[in-house]
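Subject: Sanity check before I submit

Could someone independently write out the structure tokens for this chain? I want to compare against mine line by line before I put it in a report. The sequence has 861 residues.
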Amino acid sequence: MVSRSYSNLLELASGESPSFGRMSRRIPRVMTVSGIMSDIDDDPSESVCSDPSSSSAQRERIIIVANQLPIRAQRKSDSGKGSKGWIFSWDENSLLLQLKDGLGDEDIEVIYVGCLKEEIHMNEQEEVSQILLETFKCMPVFLAQDLFSRYYHGFCKQQLWPLFHYMLPLSPDLGGRFNRSLWQAYVSANKIFADRIMEVINPEDDFVWIHDYHLMVLPTFLRKRFNRVKLGFFLHSPFPSSEIYKTLPIREELLRALLNSDIIGFHTFDYARHFLSCCSRMLGLTYESKRGYIGLEYYGRTVSIKILPVGIHMGQLQSVLSLPETEAKVAELIKQFHDQGRIMLLGVDDMDIFKGISLKLLAMEQLLVQHPEWQGKVVLVQIANPARGRGKDVKEVQAETYLTVERINETFGKPGYEPVVLIEEPLKFYERIAYYVVAECCLVTAVRDGMNLIPYEYIISRQGNEILDKVLGLAPSAPKKSMLVVSEFIGCSPSLSGAIRVNPWNIDAVADAMDCALEMQDQEKQLRHEKHYRYVSTHDVGYWARSFLQDLERTCLEHERRRCWGIGFGLSFRVVALDQSFRKLSMEHIVSAYKRTTTRAILLDYDGTLMPQGTIDKSPNSKTIEILNILCRDKNNMVFLVSARSRKTLAEWFSPCEKLGIAAEHGYFLRLSRDEEWETCIPVADCSWKQVAEPVMKLYTETTDGSTIEDKETALVWCYEDADPDFGSCQAKELLDHLESVLANEPVTVKSGQNLVEVKPQGVNKGLVAKRLLSTMQERAMSPDFVLCIGDDRSDEDMFEVIISSMAGPSIAPKAEVFACTVGRKPSKAKYYLDDTVEIVRLMQGLASVTEQMLPVPALP
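---
Independent answer below. Compare away.
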């Protein structure tokens, strides 16, 4: 097969653009291969244009990637004489297809990448790929049966799915314990998906939207190949709390892979909050909200977090409601239930351990025990769809369900009345819709579920139409009503404020909710229905898809303004994105400049720059002291250490450095050398405000385990480095607000930093030290022609700003070599960076070696 795709080598060599033909407005609903005639009319308007000139380069393209394609495949056989090929058709119930219809924009071309439900023999794969790509715009992914079993039924269904639904493998019987070979199969399958995407992607223009937990490491493979790929990911399952998630041995690999997306979507704030907490606790990342958007800073890239529940396809539901088959089925159910004086309660669930079917049945049993007046009147119809997974747990759920149904019907049933009707045979969609139309109340009691659109479908079905109103015996203008009893643990619960929310584990509470739904006045049911219908009808699948893609496009605007390159190996790979002018400080470059220049100013932060943040002993080692002394020995150098620490501590630690200038407490105190007196950058501060601030800090210290207070001469610092990161961050925000309130009339500023909240005199910052150093050198007729300033956090940005702004002034020599350098690749006013303290010490050691070579050799006595 010659694939007409962007990655086709011939096209790349010739520089041609992708050669996809423009899709016709009406896509054939059925397509056959291997010589099988189509069941549709041979209409030219339904054929795919193959004219190379009709390129879709002008159209916006979205590549939607999921485990399964929205395609049904059926083997066609000829009177038992063997296979003659396949019949393909769209799967109308697939969310991915509904997503495309919901976009409703003919200027957007959608391409699907995923697996088929049926296994395709290797000899047929090339032909099937060709026809699916050209006719349905689908790129099938073919996985060997053994690999697919280990990837999907193994890692996805036995390990990720139970864990994401809060099921820990405490014993071999409770979910699958981590298996390295299954994990490797998962990674291998994701890589095959990436290879198939490569065959259709135009990386500069296309958007890629990946769906669900089956493909969580796929973003890394795509980002590794195209650093600027426009990539979104949406998780359709719950994301567990950090306490559950951190039991996963490959927890960091999955987080880092997801963070290679530009935007990550979740159904609810709870799921997003759990993900952010995991990023904070396991990767040390922080997030912030700007103008309503939540963003995570990750190596210079902003990864957006999107919170929006998916909706239903209104057009599809309304068209099914209008079918004559639906009308006939509704009439049949009315005869079966309403005409017999029965009130239908409805449950529609997959037969798996998390859908809570047995809990619902127990609640029904409790309802009939506690409220005998409902016996003979209320019927629970439970539609049990086949489980998507397989294993012992599914069989156990089935066995328990059968026994419970049998017991309830034996206890409360009588001739012509069964309180529970269990439907296991597959229902057609219109049949399920008919049950929604007739049901007085819908019960969804899942113990954990990602979204669950059953309540949404129920609400739209109860709204009905004129034809169904006649069947139901309703007046044309009669207000509609519906009732929902939903679990607190499903994704749609927060959106349905009019539903009766229950804890499905509390059988009595669920039974009471069922009784409440049955007893509620019609007017209240109507008001709740109207509220739900307004929300569901306006927040449909199209609204969800458009909103996600708009945010993806907004997030990707940064791509062109940044330089990007990849670092790390395997699943630790990530992309660093920095401003065009931001680059790594080269040892050769700075050493060359150092040698050429004659008057030098060097400003160095201490914690996080010369000393790693995680070190317990913060005092300088002999190597650091030696480097500083060598640099200070050159009379052409003025070296300043600028720190937030107290002057007492710094004077003690750096007492061996005779000519080193020191600025303490962010520059409030400074001295030009060891033998000079300390002076202040601003008038002596009144510290009476400490009497107000210290009791407040003590209160937060007592309530935040692991936090401490550091009392400096002119400042107070509350540090939570050893506290729980989430709780410490939360307390820091509260403390910041509290201190700003009580110190509003005091001449101080309250600022938050890395794991700290600090109160210090107004106007004090490290920029003052840079100004003072440059002005002192200017007064001595030593305007520097070499300036090096290195720091690691927000407080050092003030120094960078002063240094850069002074380049045009008299305090720095014309054409001076200026190096403002931050630690780590992150947004900064500095123009250079070094990765860590190890590189900084190596740099300073290099400068010290050059200094020793340049210093005159002392004469022998």
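---
OP: Matches mine. For the report I'm noting this point. The CA atoms of residues 297 and 370 lie 55 Å apart.
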